[in-house]
Structure formats: structure tokens, C-alpha cells
Write a structure and sequence with these properties.
474 residues; alpha+beta; Spore Coat Polysaccharide Biosynthesis Protein SpsA, Chain A; Jelly Rolls; six-stranded antiparallel β-sheet; 11 helices
Length: 474
């Protein structure tokens, strides 16, 4: 029986070009942008064959750990590990951490490294290409997938293939990597032939990658080794050592290893692939109406052409528009020409500089215990609707700058307030004074809904001192 392939899924991207849907606390890979499931769930589903694949190993930002765990649980997936990166250090260190964890059990483990935010529409072609890549990796190559180009794209790097690898059908040595070209160079590469887009997906043996990284970037490998050694299991997660990982040089696999190794190989393939990098990409890959519009959500379109029209919030009405992207959420609306949506990233940067929150989170914020949604706010007050899952409870906490009023509107709550513990039902309420140690728990079989009114001089989420927390946040 052939050895299983180990999926290593990189889930740390920000997706700023897909604002206002993609936000810091809920980035594009955790959203259903190209189907009914999130991009992460689709990526994991690509490797759900137990005869071919081991359990996936996920590397992610600490902020997203509970959302990721919940999405995997929803699909019945038990990961090999969810590894928390203390800081963003690009792909080379992240993959090194995954390789070290795998190599500790099997140095010859074949890794399939995939970003969590890509779309692959041809699963059969993907598996065929993977078979070639795995055979090349078993022979010692470090393999990338080369995507068959369908035009002179300037947003991707290119790979020029060299000679065929002996004994591995469909795999070639890499003659050279080409940086993202201008339009003239891209057209010339296509005319010449033998070039593929660089997909950012890789296959290699764990120890083989670590050996090359140690040779080409020894300081990086040493830092990641220290981070793994200093790491700790924490509930359902593996937390890397923060100090060592933060000291690690940041670099991509391409720059740190693939462009320097003598053993780079490429498997050219036509996978129906997209990196979902911008709204224009989603327009290209989505099903369109007779006027070449993509229409999603509560949208009314009249005399619209070649536009991407989406509402995840209010009714969106578009009249006489052409070649536009219009995306509406509960708190923001984006309007941009379809050929300028790469500039959306600048909007998120402007929001951050202005101290606004629309780039960070949606009005509905998910938490491991449930969710909360801000429904009104003003000078010195804020109103939230809170939903707590059955059996879940919030941390034991206190606030230095605000008091809270809770009104139960559905379900049954248990409240801890200093030394008191009491239950509340529908239409009952309580007051949490400033500085009081408190906790909220759902003791019913259905979701608990309550309205929280906060009052005080500062109402930010960082005014929380957690004294005890079953989710490891204390």
C-alpha cells in the first residue's frame, strides 16, 4: 500500500482585496465565496479520501483558531493538528513548522502544501497531477504545480519547465522562475510556450524540505526548530513558541527555497484553478446571467451588464451599470470598476489609519461560545445582541471602564456576579456593575439570546480581564 500524503494547509491570509466581505477577524478563506462552503472547507474536502490522504495539518493565525476548529467540526474532520503561528512570517517558516511536526513521526512523510483560499474545479486532474508530484517528491524533488495559463496574466509568477524527470511521467525540472511580468513579457512567455503560472502549491518529503531550508536559510530553520521545541499543546491546538517564532526571518517558500534549490520540479496541469485574489476573479469563475452579470443575495438589477452584484445585507438595486463590482454587507458597501478592484486593499489601509473598525470585523462577531452583534452605539453606550450556544459559557471576567445590563429574550441563563450565582429566564434581567467579576452561561437546551447594554467611558473589547476561560484565553 502506498504511503499516505499529508495535507498541510496554510490558513493565515488576510484577503484584504476582498473587503468588505473579508475582514481581519473573518478573512476570505473562512467565507463561502465560490460555493456553499468556505474556501477552507473546500480545500480540506479535496483531501478527504482516507485511502490517499492522512488527516490535514492546519497552520493559522491565533485569531482564527476557533472559527477554523468549528468549520472542521461541522464537516466531521479531525485534523492532525491546528498549529497557531504567533506572528506572520510568510510561507517558508510556516511550512517548516508543519514539516518538523510531521518529520518527528515520519521523516519521509510526503507533504502536500496548499493555501486554504484557492479554488480547484477539476478534482480528477488535481489527483492525477498529485500522483506525478508525489512520485517526483519520493525521488527527492521539491515539486510545485504549474497552472496552464489561459492568457497573459501579470498577477502571477511564471515557471519555465526544463527536461522531463526520468521515470516520472508528467514531471519536469524547473528551468527558471519568472517574477510577475509586465503585459509585454507575459505575452512573450505565452508565445514561447513551456511556461506555467506558479500556483503556490507544493509537494515534497518533510525531511527533504527541512534539509534544503537548513542549507539555504539556516537561521530560519533554527528559529522554527526553537519555536516548535518551545511550543505547547493547548486544548485542541498546538501553540508555537512566541519569542522564537517572532525572531524568525520572514520569507516565502519560493524565495527561500524553490528559486535556489537545484532540485525544483514542476508538474504542469490544467486544474480549473483560481487563487481568488480579487472580486474580478470571482466574477470570472462564477456562473453568469444572459447579460454576463454575477448576482448573489438580495439584488435587483435592471439594464446591468458584465457586473458582479452581491449583497450579504440590505437590498441592493443596480440600474444601468456596466463592468462594476458592487458588494454590500451589513455595515459597508463597495463600488468599484471591475478592472480596478486590486486597489481595494488601499481602502482597508485607510480604514486602519483612521482608527475605524470596518476592516477588522463584521457587525456579527463569532466567538467559540457563540456570537455577538452590535445593534446600536453612541457616546458612552453600546447595545449588543448576544447568542450563547447550549452548554457554553463565557469567561469569568471583569471590566475596568464599563458596566453592563443583561436582558434575557430567549432561553435560560446562569449568571455569576461576584459571589452570587443565580438563574435568569425570558424577560428577566440583571445589572453587572463596573469592576464586578462575572460570567454568563447557557444552561438550556436551546441557544440563549440576550440584549446587553454597555455604559461607560470606554467600550472596546480590550477592556476585558479574563480570570478563567475554558478556551485558553485567560
Amino acid at each position: 500500500m502506498a504511503s499516505l500524503i499529508h495535507p498541510v494547509i496554510l490558513c493565515g491570509g488576510a484577503g484584504t482585496r476582498l473587503w468588505p466581505l473579508s475582514r481581519t477577524l473573518e478573512p476570505k478563506q473562512l467565507l463561502a465565496l465560490a460555493g456553499t462552503r468556505s474556501l477552507l472547507r473546500e480545500t480540506v474536502a479535496r483531501t478527504r479520501d482516507p485511502a490517499r490522504f492522512a488527516a490535514p495539518l492546519i497552520l493559522c493565525n491565533e485569531l482564527h483558531r476557533f472559527l477554523i476548529a468549528e468549520q472542521l467540526l461541522e464537516d466531521g474532520v479531525e485534523p492532525a493538528a491546528i498549529v497557531l503561528e504567533p506572528a506572520a512570517r510568510n510561507t517558508a517558516p510556516a511550512v517548516a513548522a508543519g514539516a518538523l511536526l510531521l518529520a518527528a513521526k515520519d521523516p519521509d512523510a510526503v507533504m502536500l502544501v496548499m493555501p486554504s483560499d484557492h479554488v480547484i474545479r477539476d478534482q480528477e486532474a488535481f489527483l492525477a497531477a498529485l500522483a506525478s508530484a508525489a512520485a517526483a517528491a519520493a525521488a527527492g524533488a521539491l515539486v510545485t504545480f504549474g497552472i496552464a495559463p489561459d492568457g497573459p496574466e501579470t498577477g502571477y509568477g511564471y515557471i519555465e519547465r526544463g527536461a522531463a524527470l526520468p521515470g516520472v511521467e508528467g514531471a519536469f525540472s524547473v528551468a527558471r522562475f519568472v517574477e510577475k511580468p509586465n503585459a509585454e513579457t507575459a505575452a512573450a512567455l505565452l508565445a514561447k510556450g513551456g511556461h506555467s503560472w506558479n500556483s503556490g502549491m507544493f509537494v515534497f518529503r518533510a525531511r527533504r524540505y527541512l534539509d534544503e531550508l537548513g542549507r539555504l536559510a539556516p537561521a530560519m530553520l533554527a528559529a522554527v526548530e526553537a519555536a516548535v521545541e518551545q511550543g505547547a499543546d493547548e486544548h485542541d491546538f498546538v501553540r508555537l513558541g512566541a519569542a522564537a517564532y517572532e525572531a524568525c526571518p520572514a520569507d516565502s517558500i519560493d524565495y527561500a527555497v524553490m528559486e535556489k534549490t537545484a532540485d525544483a520540479a514542476v508538474v504542469p496541469a490544467d486544474l480549473g484553478w483560481s487563487d481568488v485574489g480579487a472580486w474580478s476573479t470571482l466574477w470570472e469563475i462564477a456562473e453568469k446571467d444572459a447579460d454576463a452579470n454575477v448576482i448573489l443575495g438580495d439584488v435587483m438589477a435592471a439594464d446591468a451588464k458584465r457586473s458582479y452584484l452581491r449583497s450579504d445585507g440590505p437590498l441592493l438595486a443596480a440600474v444601468g451599470v456596466e463592468d462594476l463590482v458592487v458588494v454590500a454587507t451589513g455595515d459597508a458597501v463597495l463600488v468599484a470598476p471591475r478592472d480596478r478592484v486590486q486597489e481595494v486593499k488601499a481602502v482597508t489601509e485607510t480604514l486602519a489609519k483612521a482608527g475605524r473598525s470596518e476592516h477588522e470585523s463584521h457587525p456579527l462577531v463569532r466567538r467559540p461560545w457563540g456570537s455577538y452583534q452590535t445593534v446600536d452605539a453612541g457616546e458612552g453606550f453600546q447595545v449588543k445582541r448576544i447568542i450563547v450556544k447550549p452548554g457554553a459559557r463565557l469567561s469569568l471576567q471583569k471590566h475596568a471602564q464599563r458596566a453592563e445590563h443583561w436582558v434575557i429574550v430567549r432561553g435560560k441563563a446562569r449568571v455569576t456576579r461576584n459571589r452570587e450565582v443565580f438563574d435568569l429566564e425570558v424577560d428577566q434581567s440583571t445589572y453587572i456593575p463596573l469592576g464586578a467579576v462575572h460570567r454568563l452561561e447557557n444552561i438550556g437546551a436551546e441557544p440563549l439570546h440576550l440584549i446587553e447594554v454597555q455604559s461607560g467611558g470606554y467600550l472596546g473589547e480590550d477592556d476585558i480581564v479574563r480570570l478563567d476561560d475554558e478556551y485558553g484565553r485567560a
